[in-house]
Amino acid sequence: MNNLFKALNDPTRREILDLLREGDLNAGEIADRFNMTKPSISHHLDLLRQAGLVESVKQGQFITYSLNTTVLDELLAWLMSFQTTEKPASEKTPK
């Protein structure tokens, strides 16, 4: 889960995830949307892949990236497990 939080901590990586919500893109298409070097984008994509947030498929000379929402679903379920429907003791009225 540390890789997941590390990946989500960077605004560039969050922007890449937003782009992939619209559909699959290859690395060049993603890099064209940013004002940074292709190796830098490749590094961001690799961290997203290691965190399980994106999947990559090599198609000829290109690598196509797609969003993997399964990891986000698991994170959301974990976070929701901390929510309780019972009122905290400080909000309960004495009987």
- Rounded to the nearest angstrom, the radius of gyration is 18 Å
Biggest sheet strand line-up: 1-3-2
- Mean of pLDDT: 90
Architecture, according to CATH?
Orthogonal Bundle
Return the string of H and E elements.
HHEHHEEH
The strand count comes to 3
How would you sum up the major sheet? 3 strands, antiparallel
User: What structural class do the secondary elements suggest?
Assistant: alpha+beta
What is the molecular shape?
elongated
- Unreliable stretches covering 5 or more consecutive residues: none
Q: How many separate domains?
A: 1
CATH topology: Arc Repressor Mutant, subunit A
Hey, roughly how much beta strand do the residues contain?
A: 5-15%
| Terminal residue distance | 43 Å
CATH level-4 homologous superfamily: Winged helix-like DNA-binding domain superfamily/Winged helix DNA-binding domain
In percent, how helical is the residue content?
40-55%
Which CATH first-tier class would you pick? Mainly Alpha
- In quaternary terms, these chains amount to single chain
Number of helices: 5
Organism: Spirosoma terrae
Pfam families: HTH_5
Keywords: DNA-binding, Transcription, Transcription regulation
GO molecular function: DNA binding; DNA-binding transcription factor activity
Notable characteristics:
Arc Repressor Mutant, subunit A, alpha+beta, 5 helices, elongated, 3 strands, DNA-binding transcription factor activity, 95 residues, DNA-binding
Structural account:
Keywords: DNA-binding, Transcription, Transcription regulation. One of its GO terms (molecular function) is DNA-binding transcription factor activity. This is Winged helix-turn-helix transcriptional regulator. Residues 1-87 form the HTH arsR-type domain. Pfam families: HTH_5 (PF01022). With 95 residues, the protein is α+β, with helices and mostly antiparallel strands. It has one domain (2-82): Orthogonal Bundle (Arc Repressor Mutant, subunit A), CATH 1.10.10.10. The chain is 49% helix and 15% strand. The protein has helices spanning 2-8, 11-21, 27-31, 38-50, 70-80, and strands spanning 25-26, 54-59, 62-67. It has a three-stranded antiparallel sheet. Strand 2 (54-59) and strand 3 (62-67) form a beta hairpin. Helix 1 runs antiparallel to helix 4 (38-50). The longest helix has 13 residues, at 38-50.
